[in-house]
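Input set for joint prediction.
Command: fold jointly, output tokens.
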Amino acid sequence: MEYCLETEGLCKYYRDFKALDGLSMHVPKGAIYGFIGKNGAGKTTLIRLICGLQEPTHGSYSLYGKKHTDTGIFAMRRRMGGVVETPSIYMDMTAEENLIQQYRILGVPSMDGIKELLALVGLADTGKKKAKHFSLGMKQRLGIAVALCGSPDFLVLDEPVNGLDPQGIVEMRELILKLNREKQITVLISSHILDELSKLATHYGFIDRGRLVREISASDLEAECRKCKRVTVTDTKLLCSVMDERNIEYSIISDTEADIYGQISVTELVTALAEKNCEVLSITERGDSLEKYYINLVGGGDNE
Amino acid sequence: MSKLLSTEFRRLFKSSLYKWCMLLSGVLSAVLIILRWRDVCESSAAYANLPAEYSKADDMLFMGSLFMLFVIAIFTGMFAGTEYSDGTIRNKLIVGHKRSSIYISKLVVCSTANIILHAISVIVAWGLGSLLLGVDMQYGELLTRTCMLFFIIISMTALMLLFAMLIQSKSIGSVACLSFMIIMILAAGYVQNRLDTPEYYGGYIYVDEETNEYIEEGQQKNPSYLSGKKREVYEIVFDVLPTGQMLQVCYRSPKNSIMLYDVIILIGAASAGIVLFKKKNLK
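tokens >
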């Protein structure tokens, strides 16, 4: 698998405080990588490091295979865009002027794409309004537009939905999905709003106290968190035959326990088993949300 | 680097703060000349008894620049600090610009901006001064002093930028720049005052009340007068301090060596700034 970003034992210390403590992560190309952790876990520190705002104390990271100590890293950064914490925009300039400014920073000779970029983020009709008069959502979108100047392949967004209203959150989600699907931009999003991330991410990285606790793809996570009915019966062999007849997915846990993943009504299940002289002793709903998965992973009580 | 310079110059000339500073520079210079002209007109009899240079604009040509030092400090602090307050410095780093290039581009743009401000001040003073009061200064000397002034401006900008780029707060950075400038001005004023202390008290005559005799006291040695090594040190400090150099350009015959000191200050401040900025953890 090709990676946009790889980190190896990344550490960042602020005097005695370890903000990152040997963090190793892998962001595959084309992914929307949800970077999850509570406040102070080290999400923003990692983003600051990979954006070149700070230097790691130990360890290394690579962008498109170039190590951060190589001189070639500067060229690789040209393929990156990012919004770190707050949108980086000149408040006394209009949306268009901000994009012209970023085009100049990048050395893009033609300003042709600016109108399209503003339309993409829904700021086409802001005219001469200065950024300082924008709503928070508009500023966030302008920040993303600035990050998208020069058509980056890798977009880093630090808490992009923080402070947005519900409408703004939906718009931000749609924009990120659009960028990923239509422009094949790899996106790294840090957030602690798990419900929102679960609607976007194709991969997850869970960080706690500066360490990556788990890295998992969305499909694997879904399998781990999959909703099912845990059934306790007198004979699972009879249960198997009922499930096979109906072509329903299941897995056997023990001689008396099984998980049923497909949709089946309880009445139908009990009736079918009763016809085969199999008694149903209990049925319980199982399955974790991303939130529960995260809490289990990082140890909720300890981290409250 | 050229990309950064193009970006920064565009920002500079779009900046309303800078437009106000340019206006202030011109107006301040004009006001100083007009005040002198009014004074000369109102007190023509008094000025007639003074040497001719007192009623000319020569010593007013660079006076506006002296006041503009405060503007340099505030402008440099705010222009560089905006990159931190708006977070836009991140946009440059994320897309791969080197910190040294960012720092140098800022130094070039702020120096140019401050030189333009002072050029406006000198041009307005010279133009209006020639018109209202007359200027005796030769073009060659005017050009030399203006050139020295620009060297001083660049070295001062380098010092101000050092503060502005290392303090990640626009307001604190601007206050630090202004405070440093005030300290430098006070220091230069103090050094000038000490250097100007006369070596002897003037002689005087008084009448003894008891004898009604006229008694003449000759000149007396001034204990505050700086001499020997101490005077040399004060003179070096006055030459090295950019504010001291500024006073020399305004009111004295400046030494050519001040330009060398400016180059040393520029290299020192810029090198220290780049090294510290490279190590700085940005947010």
